[in-house]
Amino acid sequence: MATAAYEQLKLHMTPEKFYVEACDDGADDVLTIDRVSTEVTLAVKKDVPPSAVTRPIFGILGTIHLVAGNYLIVITKKTKVGEFFNHVIWKATDFDVLSYKKTMLHLTDIQLQDNKTFLAMLNHVLNVDGFYFSTTYDLTHTLQRLSNTSPEFQEMSLLERADQRFVWNGHLLRELSAQPEVHRFALPVLHGFITMHSCSINGKYFDWILISRRSCFRAGVRYYVRGIDSEGHAANFVETEQIVHYNGSKASFVQTRGSIPVFWSQRPNLKYKPLPQISKAANHMDGFQRHFDSQVIIYGKQVIINLINQKGSEKPLEQTFATMVSSLGSGMMRYIAFDFHKECKNMRWDRLSILLDQVAEMQDELSYFLVDSAGQVVANQEGVFRSNCMDCLDRTNVIQSLLAHRSLQAQLQRLGVLHVGQKLEEQDEFEKIYKNAWADNANACAKQYAGTGALKTDFTRTGKRTHLGLIMDGWNSMIRYYKNNFSDGFRQDSIDLFLGNYSVDELESHSPLSVPRDWKFLAVTLGQKHWPMCSSGELQALEHFLSFFTMAKILLMLPDWSRRKR
Description:
Domain SAC: 122-451
Helix content: 25-40%
Number of strands: 22
Distance between the termini: 63 Å
Oligomer: single chain
Organism: Macaca mulatta (Rhesus macaque)
Enzyme class: hydrolase
Strand content: 25-35%
Largest sheet: 13 strands, mixed
Structural class: alpha+beta
EC number: 3.1.3.64
GO biological process, one term: phosphatidylinositol biosynthetic process
Number of domains: 2
């Protein structure tokens, strides 16, 4: 079993040092951070000065260097999500960013303003919902990966053994990572979505769990991060695992989503839907192969489901994806193009069964992971469905929920929860839990990437496409338009700062925040940075206008819909 992180902590502060005291039973360790030299050492409880100011905390997110110097980021509030095989899972809901420096008198006015902006960026990321952790369980790995590990791996700390793709505070923990003796103070934090439910079918009780792990590689916001990078990391890559726990047996079904893995972009330009641009200079096959080589090593066979339009502006991307798969010629990959919008037009969402029937045999071959109550592996998942649309949000989540539902039907029948011939969709109480959880998953992933809730969640929640759902989709689309064009530059830079893709250098001769603006673009590029062009007042005015415009449009449309229904 992994070495647990400390769960109960107290932060003691003096002008010279931070002392983080482990308060778990039998613990005497104190993590000491020198606020002047920044040195990190391990001490004991008697070393904490009685004069220190004390407060409880729930974890150390890490440290970061800004213009004013170093900052310590701690978790100050948490809520319990549930229990996972007797391990408590928490959501971090509030944080504090504490300066090592006691004063800001060493900064110029420009540096003070820059530091304030960087702090705002940091707090922006921390205020995005969806940070999860456990002090005793490794949330970054699937059940199948955890079942196939060495004794040495199992003895590692949570920080050492974590899948770095999903440790969102990996950069912030770099100083603690370098010192194994303090690893019990370091919490790997996941970003994404986790929900847990105790359910009953036929009087048989089981736990049903859904986990979405967002990759911190090529992370960002909707229009600023598309395609892949030179290492083969895909934008908006998410690993989603559905777990069932019944009478000691555990079953798991894993899917992935990620941007179309070639070099392409779709920068905001005030158009409702900017034209995707496929790079003419990049070596697409190199990045494409790197991406799928890693996917095959981690997951096995790849069944690619491409849901984008096969005409219009999305058509070249579909053709490029198909050509790349064909050129690679790998027996570990299957490619399926399904034009979601064409097939389901006029609200014919029942036609999604065409796709499910098409991939049913493949899904049976991929199988799922199952371990019995004695700990023996009964079945392994041999590969994953890798689904995508343009954003890998709305269409993708609908399809993933349907594939997961089919897998769950097979798992519950095999475990004896469902009777032979009994259908999961007939279990009304569970179906409500299932559909709402998948819709909540869609909203979480969409808010983290696109800035709004997901589209099409009326279908995920109810199994039907509704007029009210269309209205909500219109609302969210308008808010996305505003955010993508007027505030996503700031959001992207905030993520880059948080993840260490951009490092603050207080010795820079020019502030990166004071470059002259060019009104031909909504956001300007500063090296790798994108700064918003509008002031906060302008953004607020625009938001009010869009809200008024959207609501007026909705009200004008309602009478027409009412007549249609009659």
